[in-house]
Amino acid sequence: MPVVPLGEIAEIVSGATPKTGVADYWGGDIAWATPADLSRLDGPYISQTPRQITEAGARSCATTVLPAGSVLLSSRAPIGHVAINTVPMATNQGFKSLVLGPRVHAKFLYYWLKSKTEHLQSLGNGATFKELSKKTTEQIQIPLPPVEEQRRVAAILDQADVIRTKRRQVLAHLDALIQSTFHAMFGDPTGDSWERAALGEVVGKIDNGTSPNCEARPAEPDEWGVLKLGAVSYGMFRPGENKAYSGQVGRMSPNEVRAGDVLMTRKNTRELVGAVAVVDDVRPRLLLPDLIFRLHLDQERVDSRYFQAMMMNERVRPAVRDLSSGSAASMPNISKARLRTLTICLPPIQLQRQFSRRIMEIRAQRVLIERARAADDELFASLQSRAFRGEL
To answer: Which of 139, 56, 138, 130 is nearest to 96 (CA)?
Structure first.
């Protein structure tokens, strides 16, 4: 199978952001995507975006309106989100999108890029944000069979992806059930139905670890690892989101993560900063990084799982995000002092614990679905590998 650079089969296009303070540039008919918009997709296609720009906005900056059927590739924060636009669409500067030539099928390229996330991330450069440059993207090598073969491979992968999509939908329903249960039991957590208190009154101590130089790969089961932000960012503890650490642990040993810990991202994108997850189970030798807090809650006043659901509630999240300071370029950061000022809702502890028991039942079902999804992902990855070696 021939291998060619992406720059030979597609035009690599960067995006840009019109000035946000100019009203004439916003609210138009041109869809305008950010990497965060791609993170919310449940499939390969993007048809609409939360924000739109005008023709004047597009002309005012270096963005390009991509034709439908292009492949959007996020090139920073993070590298590796991929989608196919079904309508003409512009993007912000966090993309190196691909306007395709006749030699490449969009869905084939989509699946190939999705299978290469770790490789793409390894190609990024930069101190604050790792970013893929246009030149680097153009030089990425892709196996390229004839277009008809690309279509056949994409159709096979489509069929295999159906089961994974259904599993994701079940998980989304279970996550929605947690918040609907919260609403049914407690109502609006920003209202005055229950006692309210500053977070500092129910958090005795806030820890954060250190972020030593680590390897790019995850730690093996018998190795020390340092958690990445992705271990907490989406409100569910993901121990596999870690980086291997081969140095001396020494004084970092108190930072080892333990079952029952309540973790919170202190620094992240504005959308994800302040996310909270509870550690239900964890293997030994995983360390807390500098970018994640460990909160020591007063268990007589606030239950861990109630606290997690409350902090991730859509009505509470704006207040959590507003605690952060810092520019988008440096990633917003929440200080311990400002976090302690957050006012939270404190229903009776017995009611919180009743909620916790219900959530544990839902989470038990979620664990089973997660295991099945992991098996599906392994099979799909194997199928992709064979497909891109020309063995299907």
So the answer is: 138
Say how many CA atoms lie within 13 Å of 118 toward its Cβ. 6
- Indicate the Cα dihedral angle 204, 178, 33, 267, nearest 10°: 10
Crossing angle of the two packed helices 304-311 and 147-186, in degrees rounded to 10: 120
Task: Give the tens place of pLDDT for each residue, 69-104.
Answer: 999 999 998 899 999 999 999 999 999 999 999 999
The architecture that CATH gives domain 3-144 is Alpha-Beta Complex (3.90)
Q: Give percent of the chain above pLDDT 90.
A: 82
**pLDDT (average), residues 328-353:** 90
What phi-psi label fits residue 229: left (phi over 0), alpha (psi between -120 and 50 degrees) or beta? alpha
DSSP letter, residue 131: B
Residue 190 tokens read as 């920003």
First to last CA, the chain: 13
Give me the pLDDT at residue 206, please: 96
Contact predicate 339/206, CB 8 Å: yes
DSSP state of 73: E
pLDDT of residue 329: 53
Q: Comparing 3-144 with 195-346, is the CATH topology the same?
A: yes
The structure tokens listed for 73 are 């590739």
- The whole-angstrom separation of Cα 23 and Cα 60 is 12
For 123, the token pair is 């190609």
Q: Is the separation of the CB atoms in 72 and 15 below 8 Å?
A: no
CA torsion sign for 66, 69, 75, 76 is positive
For the stretch 288-338, pLDDT in tens is 999 999 999 999 999 999 999 999 999 999 999 999 987 555 678 999 999
Q: What are the residue boundaries of the structural domains of the chain, listed by start?
A: 3-144, 195-346
Question: Which sign does the torsion angle of CA 17, 21, 22, 26 carry?
Answer: positive
What would the CATH number be for the domain defined by 195-346? 3.90.220.20
DSSP code at position 241: S
